[in-house]
Amino acid sequence: MKIAFVTLGCKLNYAETSTYERGFLRAGFEVVPWREAADLYLVNTCTVTETSNSKSRSEIRKLHRINPEARIIVTGCYAQLKPEEIRAIEGVWKVFGAEEKASLVSACLAGLEDELTSAEGSSRSAPENVDGTGRRSEEKTGNVFGAYSSGERTRSFLKVQDGCDNFCAYCTVPYARGRSRNIPICEAVRMAREIAAKGIKEIVLTGVNTGDFGRTTGESFLDLLKALNEVEGIERYRISSIEPNLLTEETIDWIESGTKFQPHFHIPLQTGTDIQLQRMGRKYTTEYFERKLQYIREKLEAPGRPKVFFGIDVMVGLPGETEELFEGTKAFLERIRPAFIHIFPYSKRPGTPAAIMLGQVQESEKSRRVKVLEELCSRLHSEFEQENRGLRMHVLFESSEKGGMMSGYTENYIRVSRPYDEALAGKIVEIDL
């Protein structure tokens, strides 16, 4: 049978989709592009905004038009929050929420088995030892679905944590992905070794709140990093989506001591004024955030060494954000100077405290503020690249070719291009930037 995959949303979803794909491959399925007439389609959805919900519904309907006879499987955050809404869409066969991801592949295989048995009046044997990951059952821990992406030759996103306990005023993540939980360190190491066996050189650690690792297993985030650092074959690690209060000085000190972890951090800020941080329910102040970035720079930067790349999430238009408060956020970003700003407008999510707050901001004003920060991001990123000019860097080149060129990233996430050379694909090359 043929199966195709469509993934919307974050890197966690892409890691999960890759894991589903490996499970179906082990069960004997042929993976085809989604534009082809497959027997099964799997849609991994997002619900971060109402636009995300709409796009998820549109993708499902599009696949049904491609092949009206196909069975469509839907999972992801939208499937968790609005399962009945999804089941009402023509063509949908099965819906899997956050608690059911680990059993997705086995449940689908069992469903197909039941249909075949009913149609033929006979019994067939399902593949042995296949669960939601396509692996043996001992690889699951409780309701945590460990996953990693495998679509690239150079980099893999390894999901070590899921869910969140913060319940920020604007956010549906705790409802869509559940409470904070993690796989054990031994499982993370096992998956990292499997990634290394595929010849992949770099791992990006991912989670909804990656630094909260250990909440369900009693282990620590730093112990996870130390264990992964020993995995042979993996040459570089990056840390994605970690709260500033969970990226401890002890962790930074250890990274600085000489490890495989790169000077690149994705840290959510959300807003640059204490008034709005308090309204959001965030667990730090602007002063704390600024001091944390300063500490990291002091530890990891030195003459001749790469500048630290900080990618920062910022929301505009949270209810109560006046023009003065927005300008305060802009001024704060100018002061802390991140290399990249991931900007998104506030989207009212039913059931969250922010949805009923006073001072809702007009959509046109949100769009204007997004544009202002996008211009600031472009300037800050250009200045960051200029600050690194002349330094000795290490680039991990990717295997893809575009217009006779290949590209890759330095340790501090600056994209570098050069004429295509197949011998350099998947290799770390030293260059002068």
What does it look like?
The protein has 3 domains: 2-120, Rossmann fold (3-Layer(aba) Sandwich); 139-387, tm_1862 like domain (pyruvate-formate lyase- activating enzyme, Alpha-Beta Horseshoe), CATH 3.80.30.20; 392-432. The N and C termini lie far apart (48 Å). Helix 7 runs parallel beside helix 8 and helix 9 (249-256) packs parallel to helix 11. A hairpin with a 6-residue loop joins strand 6 (147-148) and strand 7. The chain is globular, with a radius of gyration of 22 Å. With 433 residues, it is an alpha/beta fold. Helix content is 36%, strand content 21%.
How would you summarize the topology of this molecule?
Layout: E1 2-7, H1 11-26, E2 30-31, E3 40-45, H2 50-66, E4 71-76, H3 77-81, H4 83-87, E5 92-95, H5 104-120, E6 147-148, E7 155-159, E8 161-162, H6 173-176, E9 181-182, H7 185-197, E10 202-206, H8 221-229, E11 236-239, H9 249-256, E12 261-270, H10 274-280, H11 286-300, E13 309-316, H12 323-336, E14 340-345, H13 363-387, E15 392-397, E16 405-409, E17 415-419, E18 428-432
Parallel strand pairs: 1-2, 1-3, 3-4, 4-5, 7-10, 10-11, 11-12, 12-13, 13-14
Antiparallel strand pairs: 6-7, 8-9, 15-16, 15-18, 16-17
Helix pairs in contact: 7-8, 9-11
Overall structural class, as computed from helix and strand content, comes to alpha/beta
- Write down the domain tally: 3
The CATH superfamily of the largest domain is tm_1862 like domain
Mean pLDDT: 91
As a percent range, the share of strand residues is: 15-25%
Taking the alpha carbons of the first and last residues, their distance comes to: 48 Å
The radius of gyration is 22 Å
Number of helices: 13
**Main beta sheet:** 7 strands, mixed
| Number of E-type strands | 18
CATH C-level label of the largest domain? Alpha Beta
**Residue runs with pLDDT of under 50 for 5 or more positions:** 122-142
What coarse outline follows from CA principal-axis ratios? Answer: globular
- The proportion of residues forming helix, as a percent range, comes to 25-40%
So, CATH architecture of the largest domain?
Answer: Alpha-Beta Horseshoe
